[in-house]
Write a structure and sequence with these properties.
Blueprint (H helix, E strand, L loop, with lengths): L1 H22 L22 E5 L5 E5 L6 E8 L13 H8 L9 H10 L3 E6 L4 E8 L3 H13 L5 H18 L3 H14 L12 H4 L4 H5 L1
Length: 217
């Protein structure tokens, strides 16, 4: 039913775009506005180092608050999902902090809450990320937790099904959102059947096909 609603909305919007294009033959009628004068951009000082394993580390120093943010970016996102299994990267990312070989989901949440920190994982079209924010005196704890969730996720079957159900429910809400539908249609018009032309979250029927082996891979 969700798929039919999405297809119907997509066709309606595409038809609307086509009718507008038929009526306005000289679009655009005006030139775009001239760009504003360029302004200097001051980036904060940073250091870039490459570790022996090839990982690049960028350090940016800020001293306004006694906190440290660590963010790991992995060059793999929704554009690398297996064919017919859209949503794999998104589902995998949301499962990273839902249980590892050393901590279950509750223990991870309690550990980060006990030090007043935050732990978040997610995936976009091209990257998967894991971010930890802690006070500077908890730096080692935060780094250990970041390493744990990205190196030792367990992908417990019960957590997979819980996150799968949540993903499908969230998508059901999104498919009722005109903004989501408009962006989905625009991406399809621009990118066609390239992975960029599909929602990063996948669709209900593709999310249902994702297996634990897909997530581990």
């Amino acid at each position: 039913m969700l798929r039919r609603a999405f297809v119907a909305s997509t066709l309606a919007l595409v038809a609307g775009l086509a009718s507008v294009g038929a009526q306005v033959t000289s679009w655009p009628a005006e030139n775009p506005p001239r760009p504003l004068p360029s302004r200097p951009v001051s980036f904060p000082p940073y250091e870039l180092r490459t570790l022996p394993n090839g990982m690049q580390v960028i350090v940016v120093m800020h001293h306004e608050q006694p906190e440290v943010t660590m963010r790991l970016l992995i060059r793999a996102g929704a554009a690398y999902d297996p064919p017919g299994k859209g949503g794999t990267a998104s589902l995998a990312a949301h499962l990273l902090n839902q249980g590892t070989a050393t901590r279950n989901a509750r223990e991870i949440a309690d550990a980060i809450d006990s030090i007043g920190g935050a732990l978040d994982t997610g995936a976009g079209s091209d990257v998967t990320s894991a971010t930890v924010l802690v006070m500077k005196d908890s730096f080692e704890i935060g780094m250990d937790m970041l390493a744990d969730v990205v190196r030792r996720p367990i992908f417990a079957p019960e957590e997979i099904e819980r996150q799968r159900t949540r993903a499908i429910q969230n998508l059901g809400v999104s498919l009722e959102d005109p903004d989501f539908i408009a962006r989905a249609v625009l991406n399809r018009l621009i990118y066609g059947f390239h992975p960029y032309g599909f929602p990063d979250s996948g669709m209900p029927e593709t999310i249902a096909k994702i297996t634990r082996d897909d997530l581990r891979e």
